[in-house]
TrEMBL record:
MF-aspect GO terms: 2 iron, 2 sulfur cluster binding; 4 iron, 4 sulfur cluster binding; biotin synthase activity; iron ion binding
Keywords of this entry: 2Fe-2S, 4Fe-4S, Biotin biosynthesis, Iron, Iron-sulfur, Metal-binding, S-adenosyl-L-methionine, Transferase
Gene giving rise to this polypeptide: bioB
Name of the protein this chain belongs to: Biotin synthase
Names of required cofactors: [4Fe-4S] cluster; [2Fe-2S] cluster
Organism this protein belongs to: Nocardioides caeni
Known role: Catalyzes the conversion of dethiobiotin (DTB) to biotin by the insertion of a sulfur atom into dethiobiotin via a radical-based mechanism.
Family listed: Belongs to the radical SAM superfamily. Biotin synthase family.
Biological process annotations from GO: biotin biosynthetic process
Amino acid sequence: MSIDFNALATRILDGGPDSEATEADALAVLQAPDLELMFLVAAAGRLRRQHFGNTVKVNYLVNLKSGLCPENCNYCSQAVGSEAPILKYSYLSKEETLEQAGAGLRGGATRVCMVSSGRGPSNRDIDKVVEMTEALKDEYEGVEVCACLGLLKDGQAERLKDAGVDAYNHNINTAESHHDNIVQTHTYEDRIDTIGRAKSAGLSPCSGLIAGLGETDEQLVEALFALKALDTDSIPVNFLMPFDGTPYENTWELSPTRCVKILTMARFVCPDKEIRIAGGRELHLRTLQATALHVANSIFLGDYLTSEGQDALADLHMLRDNGFSILGLDDAGFAELIATHELNAANAATVHRSHAVSTTPCGSSAGTGCGDGCGGCSIAQAPAEDNKPVIRARGAGTEVAANA
C-alpha cells in the first residue's frame, strides 16, 4: 500500500499534538489505488465507529421554494439561466410544509432541512420560516430543524435561533481557489460570512462541498481543510448531478470508488464530525452506497431538492441489510418502520395496477398519488435515461405523495 492507512487511523485515535491527519495524508487517501479501497474503508471505519457506532442519522429535505433564483451557480438546476425542467414555485404554506416534513419524520428522519432558493432571505421570508419552525416543534417532539436559506443579513440568524431552528446549512461548495470558476454572483467570502453569522447566533453550523466540478485533488483537500478550520458540526458531501440545461450538463468526473475515497478523506480529516452523503449518492456511488456508510454516518431519505432519489424503502432496506441502525430508533422501532413502509409499498402496487387500466395515470397532476410514502408509484418508473438525474415531480410543490 502507498501508506499504512490503519496506522493513520491509530495515530488519530490515540490523540496528541501530532495526531491529526495532514494535507499530505488526505491527498494520499484520494490518490490511493482502487485496489486499496477496502483497506481505506476499514481504517476510516474505525474512526466512524469510535464516534458514531453503527448509527446512521436520517435527514429529510423540504424544498420551500424551488427555482426562480437570481444567482448563477453553474452546477445548480435552480440558477438563473438554467434550462433544466425543474419544478418552480414560491414559498410553501405552513400547512404544506408540515405535511411534507411529517412525511419525512414518519419515514424515519429526525432532522428536517428546510431549504429555499435565492440569494438570501428577506425579513418576510424569515417570518415564514419562524412560523414553520414553531409549528414543527409544536407538532413533532424532538425534531431537529436545519434551515438553508442563502446569505444571511444582520439579525436573521438570531431570529431563527430564537424560533427553535437548530442548525444552519450554507455550503462552501468548493475550494476558495476554485470558487470563482463555478459562480460569479457572490464570493467565497460571502459564504464564509454567513457561516460565521450562524455560529455567532448559536446555530449548529452545517457546511459541505460538491465534488465533480472540475476541481483538482489538491483543491478537494483545500476545501476539506477549510471546513475543518470552520469547525462545522456536519459536512454534507454532494456529488455533482449534471442536469441537462446547466453549464455542467454531461460532466462526468466521478466514479464510485472516487466518491468513497472523498468520503473517506473527510472522515480522516474530520473524524468526529457528521459526514453526510448528500446529493448524487445514488447516481455516483451506485452499488457502493452501503460501503460508503462505513465511513459516513448520515444520509438524506428519499428525494432531493429538484431530483428524485432512491425509493425510501430501498434506503431503509440498505441500512438494515448492512447492519446499521437509525439514530433515535431502537431495533423494534426500526423493524416497525420497515414493516409500515412495506405495507405502504404493497398497497401502492395494488393501486398502481388498478390505475394501469384507468384514464387517470397514477401520480398525474389530476391525482394525489397512491398515498403516504408512495411517491406517485415510483416503483413503476423506468431507470433514468443514460443514468441522468431524474427531475423531481412528487412531494413539495406537487399533489403527488412524497418519497418518504
